[in-house]
Design goal:
single chain; 364 residues; alpha+beta; Rossmann fold; OB fold (Dihydrolipoamide Acetyltransferase, E2P); 5-stranded antiparallel beta sheet
């Protein structure tokens, strides 16, 4: 396997910039997920690495080799697509063997590689079947096997689980992660589902508008989003983002919104004081807000808008002034629409963003 490096990669279509100076390094053996909404540039970036579309500017390296101008067949990569792209009239064995036959390997070497890949993926018993006789998960394993037999320097995967049902997606997530661990493979994985990225990837690259917003380990992206886009995209449910004003009262600083306010801790007051204006955005995960049914000294009033029980957790949607935020509570908590409640924000876990720049605010 090999390291993959993108340096100031640009792709334009006329006046439209699809990928805007993206630079990142995928370490040898790393699993990196490109995530973001539709049209953010993640699939275009993957296709640039594969060589399926030409670069406008920048350079792409696989290992120490600059592959920016090489054809896909010369980049020593293997792609796995969301539609599997299997040959319908060939058996599983012949589908797996096809890329090796194209490279004119001896039959004995082909059989050895196909057998090893089939064993790793648990599809030895399917080798004489055709794709139409397989389930979606089995077809996906065959597509992985066809990539695996090539022994590429990197695997490129474009939403390979999107055609599977929810239960099978969960199973295949675990199998893909084990596949990566067993092979120590370099994987670049495109998905619109940030849960796939969080559960499988060593690092995630969050993209929006063709630009790389944040590139880090999933747990750090979740815990320390660099801007409001990342905060609102990563996490399910998304982080609550509430517009507020910084208000100075004697020696205290408070956040005030539509019909609510609370005093900031000294550290959060320093963060808010670094904003370019008095306008800030308060960010809080559903699990960091405590919902109470009685008033308290640090709690602010809200009113239940709706309640979503999910079995092991209940999500309460609460009106806080003109905003509606999501708070999680235990499933045995009984709440109804229009109930009066009070909310207490954990000051050690809230996030503050500059309302003008949308960037995260730091204390120092």
């Amino acid at each position: 396997m090999a390291e993959v490096r993108l340096h100031d990669v640009v792709k334009t279509y006329g006046s439209v910039t699809a990928v805007d100076r993206v630079s990142l390094t995928v370490g040898d053996g790393e699993f990196v997920a490109l995530v973001g909404p539709s049209g953010c540039g993640k699939t275009t970036t993957l296709n640039l690495v594969a060589g399926l579309i030409p670069l406008t500017e920048g350079h792409i390296y696989i290992g120490e080799r600059d592959v920016s101008d090489l054809d896909p067949k010369d980049r020593d990569i293997a792609m796995v697509f969301q539609n599997y792209a299997l040959y319908p009239n060939k058996t599983v064995y012949k589908n797996l063997a096809f890329p090796l036959k194209m490279r004119k390997l001896p039959n004995a070497a082909i059989e050895t590689k196909v057998t090893a890949a089939a064993k790793l993926l648990g599809i030895e018993h399917l080798l004489e079947r055709r794709p139409r006789e397989l389930s979606g998960g089995q077809q996906q394993r065959v597509a992985l096997g066809r990539a695996l037999v090539r022994d590429p320097r990197a695997f490129l995967m474009d939403e390979p689980l999107s055609n599977l049902d929810a239960k099978l997606r969960v199973q295949m997530r675990a199998e893909l992660k084990r596949f990566h661990q067993d092979l120590n493979a370099t994987v670049i994985y495109v998905t619109h589902d940030q849960l796939e990225a969080v559960t499988m990837a060593d690092k995630m690259a969050v993209m929006n508008g063709g630009q790389l917003q944040q590139y880090d380990a999933p747990e750090r992206v979740f815990a320390s989003p660099v801007n409001t886009f990342v905060a609102g995209f990563v996490g399910s449910p998304a982080m609550n983002l509430i517009e507020a004003e910084l208000v100075a009262r004697a020696e205290r600083r408070s956040l005030a919104g539509d019909g609510w306010s609370f005093d900031l801790s000294p550290e959060n007051a320093r963060k808010a004081g670094r904003a370019t204006s008095s306008s800030v955005v308060l960010g809080a995960r559903h699990s960091t807000i405590r919902l109470k049914t009685e008033a308290g000294p640090r709690a602010i009033p809200g009113r239940i808008f709706t309640v979503e029980p999910t079995g092991d957790i209940t999500y309460a949607h609460v009106r806080l002034g003109s905003a509606i935020i999501v708070v999680s509570v235990a499933p045995d908590v009984r709440l109804s629409a229009d109930d009066q409640v009070w909310l207490e924000f954990d000051q050690q876990k809230i996030h503050l963003f500059d309302a003008e720049t949308q960037q995260a605010l730091a204390a120092g």
